[in-house]
UniProtKB/TrEMBL annotation:
Domain of life, source organism: Bacteria
Alphabetized GO MF terms: peptidase activity
Keywords, sorted A to Z: Coiled coil
Protein's name according to its UniProt entry: D-alanyl-D-alanine carboxypeptidase-like core domain-containing protein
Coiled coil: 18-70
Transmembrane domains' residue ranges: none
Source species of the chain: Planotetraspora thailandica
Keyword Coiled coil: yes
Classification via InterPro entries: DD-CPase-like (IPR052179), VanY-like_core_dom (IPR003709), Zn_M74/Hedgehog-like (IPR009045)
């Protein structure tokens, strides 16, 4: 064992702990996204039900108005017939003195009265329906408000938890000399929770926010790979007394093209290299020599941190320096 003079052992986190923190942060992020989705779906459902209730109430109002229009003149007509048949226009029917006609006229008036009562009954039923619907709408609003308050409280708790985890992770990375806010990132620092978002970008075109710096200045990888690398670098440092040597890491499409045209056959076809996905590193400091103690250490330990030496790199082309983070392996750890 080589002494660990160059590593700040007291403050440094344990190898593997950064990845654990990153996973916690990612889970918290996913929980927030899920809760927000549920909240949105609930809001949509509420709006739809509310709209349906409002439409029903409007229909009831219309029906009520129609009844009102019939009821007033009908009542007026019946009253006037009873009081003064001649004034209602039905006078001639009563005035003829013909018993049959009078009876028929009386029966017509009775019909009108029955009709008026039906209208009154209908109006009462409509009013009841309207009150029921209004109460239903009120209940829905109250239930929704309560649920919304509970959900947003839940989202707030998740947010606080997520921000705590990210803060702890950032502090741990800073302790390792990883300047998370380096350059002009500002508030757009690398986001360890957005790994799935990073996977959607094309090779060599990853946005700054989905790349995280390595302890080695100027080098960066996709957030999950960078944090796993920091963990591996910590273990390596404890063993060798110095940080890993990184010759190359993330490569933008432009730099992949430049390397390809300078040394065709040496680099992968532009847009095809795992360097462009922010998952590959080219190592130096001994690892570049197959069979060296550093190379052997990598072979024995890298998988514990999600890093592999791909099969092709053993022979075709022979690239002992090329190591890759395997997200599936990393996620399974
Ligand atoms: Zn490489």
């Amino acid at each position: 064992m080589v002494p660990v003079a160059s590593v700040r052992a007291a403050a440094a986190p344990k190898p593997g702990s950064l990845t654990a923190l990153r996973k916690q942060a990612q889970e918290a992020y996913k929980a927030i996204a899920d809760a927000t989705k549920t909240l949105d779906a609930q809001q949509k459902q509420f709006n739809q039900t509310n709209k349906q209730l409002a439409a029903k109430l409007k229909e009831l109002d219309k029906a009520n108005k129609r009844l009102e229009q019939i009821r007033q003149p009908l009542s007026g007509l019946i009253e006037s017939v009873y009081q003064d048949p001649s004034a209602s226009g039905m006078g001639p029917l009563f005035a003829k003195g013909d018993g049959t006609t009078t009876l028929r006229a009386m029966s017509d008036v009775d019909h009108l009265a029955v009709g008026r009562n039906t209208v009154l009954d209908d109006a009462a039923r409509l009013l009841k329906d309207k009150q029921k619907l209004a109460a239903e709408a009120q209940d829905l609003r109250s239930a929704n408000l309560l649920e919304e308050a509970q959900m947003s409280h839940q989202v707030d708790t998740l947010r606080a938890k997520s921000s705590d985890v990210v803060k702890t992770l950032t502090q741990s990375l800073t302790k390792l000399g990883v300047d998370v806010d380096q350059g002009n990132r500002g508030t757009q620092a690398c986001d360890p929770t957005r790994v799935s978002a990073a996977a959607q970008f094309p090779n060599g075109l990853l946005p700054k926010t989905s790349l995280c710096p390595l302890p080695q200045k100027g080098r960066e990888l996709r957030a999950d790979a960078a944090i796993a690398f920091a963990d591996m670098n910590l273990a390596y440092s404890k063993n060798f007394g110095k940080q890993m040597c990184v010759a190359d890491s993330y490569r933008s499409l432009a730099s992949q093209q430049a390397i390809y045209y300078q040394r065709p056959g040496f680099a992968a076809t532009p847009g095809r290299s795992n360097h462009g996905l922010g998952l590959a590193v080219d190592l130096c400091g001994g690892v570049q020599n197959s069979g060296s103690v550093q190379f052997n250490w990598m072979e024995a330990n890298s998988k514990r941190y999600g890093f592999i030496h791909p099969a092709w790199a053993y022979s075709n082309p022979f690239e002992p320096w090329h190591w890759e983070y395997d997200p599936k392996l990393g996620a399974s750890l």
